[in-house]
Amino acid sequence: MNADRIAALSGAGVAVEVVAQTGSTNADLLGRAASLPAPVLLVAEHQTAGRGRAGRSWLSSSENSLTFSLVWKFDGGPQALLGLPLAVGVMLGDALDRLGVQVRLKWPNDVLKDGDKLAGILIETQSAPGGGVWAVIGIGLNLIMPDEVEAQLGRSAAGAPWLARMERDVLMAALLDALAAGLRQFAQHGFGAFCVRWNLRHAWQGETVVILDNGAVLHEGRAAGVDDTGRLLLDTEQGRITVMAGDVSLRVKA
Fold first, then answer.
1. How far apart are the first and last CA of the chain?
2. Which end of the chain is less enclosed by CB atoms within 10 A, N or C?
3. pLDDT tens, 18-76?
4. Are 103 and 113 in contact (CB under 8 A)?
5. Whether residue 127 is found in the same domain as residue 231
6. Which domain holds residue 44?
7. Average pLDDT of every residue of the chain
8. Distance (Å, rounded) from C-alpha 152 to C-alpha 244?
């Protein structure tokens, strides 16, 4: 992949960097955020220590996936970022739609294709000198899912062979454009501008689900979408409740 070509193909006006290998693009940008003057996209052709939520590892290879992080500065404190992982899911969903790949969203940060995980989102933050907060938005997108990788994961996962046939620089530029436009909208209007679109893509709308914390069931109920701050709405026997993301997990009840 070529950073100059991605930047030239994109209309986002964001600096682009490509490295052959690194541990984690999120960790790299977090370490630099305090000194950055503007947003940066960092693409790794191979990550050796990619991470998902709750410290889970993300398996990737340059042939089979796209791994990158985008660091973006927001005014205000952490409260200004409520719902950002879900909004990024909407941005990705809209971009993938335009590229011919139909996806659904799983609360709070997974992109699904045919019921299996196609992409994951990890957002980490750091206070900005002089005010505001830097958000490092890490994304891992499966392009091809070989049998041996599924065996390592211990579960099925989705691929998008159509995207794998695209020129990588063109694909990355299209995703960058969608993310940059969406992040500017989020900065102005918050998750409220994305809530309806998220609910339209909700993979488990109306399904009976359980909320787990370290394997223990915290709540059970019927998934009813999300509210305009990104909280999951769950209709339980005791009535409707809201669930914040944190490190809990969501599963369809077996």
1. 42
2. C
3. 999 999 999 999 999 989 999 999 999 988 876 554 445 555 555 788 999 999 999 98
4. yes
5. no
6. 3-200
7. 88
8. 30
For residues 216 and 194, membership in a common domain is answered with: no
Same domain membership, residue 92 and residue 163: yes
112 and 143 part of one domain: yes
DSSP states along 199-210 = HHTBTTTT-EEE
Residue 212 neighbours by CB under 8 Å, 6+ apart = 218, 248, 249, 250, 251
* 30, 124 contact by CB (below 8 A): yes
- What sections of 69-194 are H helices per DSSP? 84-98, 147-153, 161-164, 168-189
- Count: domains in the chain: 2
Query: Would the pLDDT of 248 be above 70?
Result: no
115: alpha, beta or left, given left = phi > 0 and alpha = psi -120 to 50? left
Q: Which residues is 40 bridged to in the sheet?
A: 15, 71
